[in-house]
Every structure is written in structure tokens, then in C-alpha cells.
Design brief:
about 450 residues; mainly beta
Length: about 450
């Protein structure tokens, strides 16, 4: 095998052509050898890829060179890329450097009258966050064509957050960096993307069940619907005293749908019904809040309040215990007991609230205090117990929940009892005594509220 060693090969004439070998010959470049191209290559060496320029991140208008790929940073504004004069096989690559092409686009400007994708009156733009494109010049008919295009967020790029829909509003109301979805009826919380940081995927929630109705005929106040809350570790609002973090039920979301059920209001007692109807169950994922217990009544010799998330109050004039709260039990407790009644007072007892039990009849029969949370960005009270009804005079009535979500009890011989607050799980007021023994008022329906960090 012969060997030729030279420092330079030049053509015989100026600007001539040097030909290496003949057709069919093979030239082998040994392992470890390097070929450096300081000029323009034509017809070899290009396999559909580019040499990516990492030394100069582009932040302003520039002219691309065939064979090169560029990282384009539009954080400070839109950038125009001037494409080179095209020859068949020319290739240019572009990649979104900071994930901002969706905010500030890249505009492609072809040379002279050359075309991009067959031509257009408007220069095309690249507007996808994390976008990348590979352009090859084909011919004068189509000009530059895209041979590869993708949208990829780099693992070390900016952080992802939860993306979800459902409730009212469907896309979620915003409060700073957080979104809030409120469900007042059956629905689905649909998560399409989770966050990069694990703590951001543990969401905050409030699940309130339906409040119960008050009892008939100087009846006890209805118990409030169950109240359960969990404030996620990444959240910053002021939670209620029943916040279950730590110790409660955390929900870490994944990209799936979560069915939502909303508890109905407890029905008022009918002509042959003594106690108020219990509230319906609300649920989200693995968390269930149970309905409030109906207020007790003197009819059909059924005096006690019903058990439930918060118990119903006992009726007036007799030894009538309130219903047991936190039934079935949860941690933290989802409610409290209804007030207990005893003779000879003429006022029934209040239904239990989320944080305080219903008052016993000598104290006036007020409903128990509910829970106040700022999960919707401002303080709102939920799950207050209904006040007890009265059998002592035309203007006398039991109190309402101090939180304002439980209805006031009815006075004697009148129908002044009030329903529990809608979508707040309040207990209904007990009916007044005498004069036909008015029925107790309806409870209030429940609600589910979900909150998470979205940016």
C-alpha cells in the first residue's frame, strides 16, 4: 500500500476543480480523524440534520446560514429569522429557547421572492411553546418545506402546573397563582396535566353536604351538612379550623376525571312525617361528606333529632335529645351534635353546626356555628345549624346559626321559619308550635370547591 503525504491539494488552474478518484471508488476516513468544513458543502455530508449553534442564542432579528440550527429566545419580544437564499438541499433548524414562542412569535422571512410551503402573502410565524422546526429548501415551486416539527418542553425547562376543567367557571376562577372550581351540581373535575412539583399536585378542597330540614310543630332545627376541608401544602389561603392538613385526607391528582356529587337539601316534613328530612351526601374522589340530621318533632311521638354529619335539634316541652353529629365519623369531625331539649321550656333546640353544637332549648335554640374558610379568596361561612321552633307565643322563635347559613326557627302559630342557605349546607329552621303545627323549613344544598396552583 502506497502513501502520499501533502499539506495542500490545489487545482492546476485558478478557481479550478479538484476531483478525487473515479466513479465507484471508496475513500475511508479512519476512526478518530476529523474533517473541518470552513466553506460551503454541496452534495455530501448532510443527512437531514444541522449543526446547532449553542454559542450565540438569538434574541433579535438575524439571517440564518444553511446547515446551522439556532436557539431563538423571544423572552424580550418577537424575533424575525431571515432565511438564506435557497439552493436545493439547504437546511435550517430553529428551537424555542425559553418556552416563549406562544407569547412572542418567530416570523420566517424568505429571501426575495422565494417561497415557504408553496408561498403566501403573509410571512409564516412559529407560535408553539417549546416549538422546534427543521426547514429544507426543495425547489422554486415549493421553496422551503418543513421536514420535522415538534413541540417539546425540555426536562430542565420551566415548571408545569395542573391544567383542569369542570364546575363554574369551567376553566376555574383565578386568585393570584391559584384557580378555583366551584361545583353546585353533579359534574366531573377533569385533570389533563399535572404539575412538575409533587406538592402542587396535592390540591385544596372543601366538600359540604346538604343540610337537613327542621322538625314539625315546635320542632328542632335541622343539622348542617357535613363540612370537610383540606388545604394543600403549596396553598396560602386562610383555612377553617376544620382544615385536615395534617391528619386528614389528602388528594393527589393525576391526569384523569374525578366525579363530583352534590348533596340535596333535606326535605321538609310532610303531614305524616315528624322529623325533618336529612340532607344528601356530597363527594369528591375519596372524600365524602354526609348529610345533616333532621330536626326532631312532637308528632307521632318521635321527639329526638336525627343523627347525621351534624345532628338535628330536639323538639320543645319534652326530654328530647339532639341527634348525634359526626355520623359516620371522620377526622377531623365533619360536624357536631344537635341540642338537647327538656321541659318545661317552650323552645326547641338548634341543629348542630360544623364547629359548634346546637344550643339547648333554655338558651333559645340557636343553631350551631358553621365553619368559615377563605378557599374562594374571601371569607365565606358554610354548614351552620338551623334554629329551633317555638311554642311560646306568636312572635317568639328560635335563633339561626350565627354563621348565617342555618335558617331561623318558626314562631308559635306562624310560618316564619327559614330555610338553610343554598349551596352552603345550612340546616333549616324548626317549625313553630300550635296553629296547625307548621312544618320545618328546608335545608340548604351542598357544594364542592377545588383549588390548586396553576402558574
Amino acid at each position: 500500500m502506497s502513501e502520499v503525504k501533502v499539506n495542500k491539494i490545489s487545482p492546476r488552474t485558478a478557481c479550478g476543480t479538484v476531483t478525487l478518484g473515479d466513479s465507484g471508488d471508496t475513500f475511508t476516513i479512519p476512526s478518530g480523524a476529523t474533517i473541518t468544513n470552513n466553506g460551503t458543502q454541496t452534495g455530501f455530508g448532510r443527512t437531514g440534520t444541522v449543526n446547532w449553534d449553542t454559542a450565540s442564542i438569538k434574541t433579535a432579528e438575524f439571517t440564518a446560514v444553511s446547515g446551522n440550527g439556532y436557539f431563538v429566545n423571544t423572552t424580550g419580544g418577537a424575533v424575525t429569522v431571515n432565511l438564506p437564499a435557497g439552493s436545493a438541499g439547504d437546511i435550517v433548524g430553529l428551537k424555542d429557547y425559553a418556552g416563549t414562542w406562544d407569547s412572542y412569535a418567530v416570523t420566517l422571512n424568505p429571501d426575495g421572492s422565494e417561497k415557504i410551503g408553496g408561498g403566501s402573502a403573509v410571512d409564516p410565524t412559529l407560535t408553539s411553546e417549546g416549538g422546534a422546526v427543521l426547514l429544507v429548501y426543495v425547489d422554486g415551486t415549493q421553496g422551503w418545506l418543513t421536514t420535522a416539527e415538534s413541540v417539546t418542553t425540555s426536562p430542565s425547562g420551566k415548571e408545569n402546573f395542573i391544567v383542569a376543567t369542570g364546575g363554574t367557571p369551567c376553566a376555574g376562577a383565578t386568585s393570584g397563582d391559584y384557580k378555583i372550581h366551584t361545583f353546585t351540581g353533579v359534574g366531573t373535575f377533569c385533570v389533563s396535566q399535572v404539575g412538575t412539583t409533587a406538592a402542587n399536585n396535592i390540591i385544596s378542597y372543601v366538600v359540604v353536604a346538604g343540610g337537613a330540614a327542621g322538625g314539625k310543630g315546635a320542632g328542632g332545627g335541622g343539622g348542617a351538612g357535613g363540612f370537610r376541608e383540606y388545604k394543600g401544602p403549596a396553598d396560602c389561603y386562610t383555612a377553617s379550623p376544620l382544615n385536615g392538613n395534617p391528619g386528614g385526607t389528602a388528594i393527589t391528582v393525576t391526569a384523569t376525571g374525578y366525579p363530583i356529587a352534590i348533596g340535596a337539601a333535606g326535605a321538609a316534613p310532610g303531614a305524616c312525617t315528624s322529623r325533618g328530612g336529612s340532607g344528601g351526601v356530597s363527594s369528591f374522589s375519596t372524600v365524602t361528606s354526609d348529610g345533616g340530621g333532621g330536626g326532631g318533632s312532637g308528632h307521632a311521638s318521635v321527639f329526638p333529632g336525627n343523627p347525621g354529619a351534624s345532628g338535628g335539634g330536639g323538639r320543645s316541652n319534652v326530654c328530647a335529645p339532639g341527634g348525634t353529629g359526626n355520623t359516620p365519623p371522620t377526622s377531623p369531625a365533619q360536624g357536631t351534635d344537635g341540642g338537647t331539649s327538656s321541659p318545661p321550656t317552650n323552645r326547641a333546640s338548634g341543629g348542630g353546626g360544623a364547629t359548634v353544637a346546637g344550643q339547648t332549648n333554655p338558651a333559645g335554640g340557636a343553631g350551631g356555628v358553621g365553619a368559615t374558610t377563605c378557599i374562594t379568596a374571601s371569607p365565606v361561612a358554610y354548614a351552620g345549624g338551623g334554629g329551633g321552633g317555638s311554642n311560646s307565643g306568636p312572635t317568639s322563635a328560635g335563633g339561626a346559626s350565627p354563621c348565617g347559613t342555618g335558617g331561623i326557627g318558626g314562631p308559635n302559630c306562624s310560618t316564619g321559619q327559614a330555610a338553610g342557605a343554598t349551596n352552603k349546607g345550612g340546616g333549616g329552621g324548626g317549625g313553630g308550635g300550635g296553629g296547625g303545627s307548621p312544618c320545618g323549613a328546608l335545608g340548604g344544598s351542598g357544594v364542592v370547591i377545588i383549588r390548586y396552583k396553576f402558574q
